[in-house]
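To the wet lab folks,

You asked to see what we're planning to order before we commit. Fair enough. Below is the target structure as tokens, and below that is the sequence we designed to fit it. If anything looks off to you, flag it before the synthesis order goes out.
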């Protein structure tokens, strides 16, 4: 038996912890991904960051006064919604609820009402639930730790990484649709990324990250802006792209997409349209609404009933006695 006072043997180092072993394995995969790229990551960083310095839009959530809460609100609102539609709602939202505790103290139905016509209104409920959790668990301050962000209601990997990166300047791969398209074209030579984010995309994004935290945070924002303004889904403007000379897709002659069909976003005549019309009636009044008023917004009764049932199931609408409905109050 070895004495507790015996010195450690120099040539028998302690075994690596599972966490450090996993980190080493991930870093090895990232190094492999980086070495396989047609252009070294460092040769992409400089041109894209310089372009961003000149062309970045002055958006309110990018200003220092926005804080982590402003960044989080913007990330919820910008999911599948253009900036031009988000801007007025964002400004009104922050004026009314400048901190998470302010939103948490209000009814969730008020969040749905203020969401207006941004679409996908369950995001409003999720943002309200996140505000409640931030108030209860973190004394009203949006946490900076990635794992704590990920543990909040309604927050997935993308939003956690975006808030940690954009609000706190941390080094994370922030993979939205715009970034994925830029990386697909510049690094892998295809026109569009897969319909759903893959493990290979995540490895590529981490391989492309600058090592320095502040630079990595700017890179995340810059690559996103490049996809939004230049490397767009349609009518991309390669003449304005700062990395057109290194873009694998452009250099290979811009081959057409040959993967699974790209998903379109139809709206007219769908349950989403019916749900939107039903919610519009409820948002326009603080009083309970009779079934007859809801029936008037859509002629087809089966679809209308299905849409209303879906709103109730999602917690966006509360049924009351006597055939009345309202936005949720608790």
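Sequence we intend to order:
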């Amino acid at each position: 038996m070895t004495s507790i006072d015996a010195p450690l043997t120099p040539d028998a180092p302690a075994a690596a912890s599972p966490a450090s072993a996993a980190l080493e394995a991930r870093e090895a995969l990232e190094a492999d991904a980086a070495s396989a790229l047609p252009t070294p990551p460092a040769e992409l960083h400089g041109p894209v960051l310089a372009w961003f310095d000149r062309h970045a839009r002055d958006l309110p959530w990018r200003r220092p006064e926005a804080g982590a809460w402003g960044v989080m609100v913007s990330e919820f609102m910008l999911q599948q919604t253009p900036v031009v539609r988000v801007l007025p709602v964002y400004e009104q939202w922050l004026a009314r609820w400048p901190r998470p505790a302010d939103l948490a103290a209000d009814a969730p139905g008020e969040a749905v009402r203020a969401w207006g016509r941004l679409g996908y209104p369950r995001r409003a409920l999720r943002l309200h639930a996140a505000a409640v959790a931030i108030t209860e668990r973190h004394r009203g301050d949006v946490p900076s730790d990635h794992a704590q962000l990920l543990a909040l209601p309604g927050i997935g990997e993308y939003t956690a990484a975006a808030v940690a990166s954009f609000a706190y300047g941390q080094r994370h791969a922030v993979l939205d649709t715009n970034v994925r398209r830029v990386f697909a074209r510049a690094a892998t030579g295809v026109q569009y990324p897969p319909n759903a984010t893959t493990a290979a995309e995540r490895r590529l994004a981490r391989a492309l990250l600058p090592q320095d935290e502040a630079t990595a945070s700017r890179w995340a924002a810059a690559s996103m802006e490049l996809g939004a303004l230049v490397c767009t889904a349609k009518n991309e403007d390669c003449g304005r792209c700062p990395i057109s000379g290194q873009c694998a897709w452009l250099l290979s002659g811009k081959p057409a997409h040959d993967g699974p069909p790209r998903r379109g976003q139809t709206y007219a005549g769908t349950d989403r349209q019916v749900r939107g019309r039903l919610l519009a009636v409820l948002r326009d009044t603080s009083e309970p609404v009779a079934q007859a008023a809801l029936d008037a917004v859509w002629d087809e009764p089966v679809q209308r009933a299905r849409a209303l049932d879906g709103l109730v199931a999602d917690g966006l609408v509360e049924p009351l006695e006597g055939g009345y409905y309202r936005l949720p109050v608790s």
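Structural context that might help your review: The CA atoms of residues 5 and 180 lie 55 Å apart. Strands lie at 289-290, 318-320, 324-326.

Thanks,
Computational group
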